């Protein structure tokens, strides 16, 4: 399931993030790469020691907490602290699959990565190339969204970032451990949730819709790991 969430960041939040990141000192992006990923990863990343990272993460977390599409698509149990990267001058990230388990930055525990997400922070006309290319059972998807928009997709997906040949591609990325481990079940619940919201707007709380909402929550109750 590949979902695009529009307007995750408000314009003021986007501007604040861009100001913070423009003033940052970037490090080699391989600091968070696994063994296989390190062979194909060529980009820059905001290090954990960067003075901007606490405020930048707080802005992203607040935006995620209020965005209904992100919550419905990911059903997050735990979100890895958001990270920030930058591609320029031909930098790219070759085909890879995200690590299945991540140690949190504070070393306190591990989390499983069920869902991956990229929040775009640069407008598409600010750079050439840099498409996020995601392969799934339906083929290849090339994603390059407006600044402030996000794409959410299964962490099991093979994906890459194409070389950036002009300008700079700046983005936030993260992994989510979902309350629903299986992508097929998350997809079904997301489709139900969207349909319920659409029907509620058109018809209000009629009896059939109450029954459908009950079915959604009973499935969530049956499948969720909390």
Structural account:
This protein has 226 residues and is of the alpha+beta class. The protein has 2 domains: 3-178, q2cbj1_9rhob like domain (Jelly Rolls, Sandwich), CATH 2.60.120; 183-223, DNA Excision Repair, Uvrb, Chain A (Irregular), CATH 4.10.860. 33% of the residues lie in helices and 32% in strands. Strands 1, 2, 4, 5, 6, 10, 11, 14 and 16 form a 9-stranded antiparallel β-sheet that branches. Strands 3-7-15-12-13 form a 5-stranded antiparallel β-sheet. A two-stranded antiparallel sheet has the order 8-9. A hairpin with a 6-residue loop joins strand 8 and strand 9 (110-112). Helix 1 (11-22) packs antiparallel against helix 3 (53-66) and helix 5 runs antiparallel to helix 6. The longest helix is centred in the C-terminal third of the chain and has 21 residues, at 183-203. The mean pLDDT is 94.
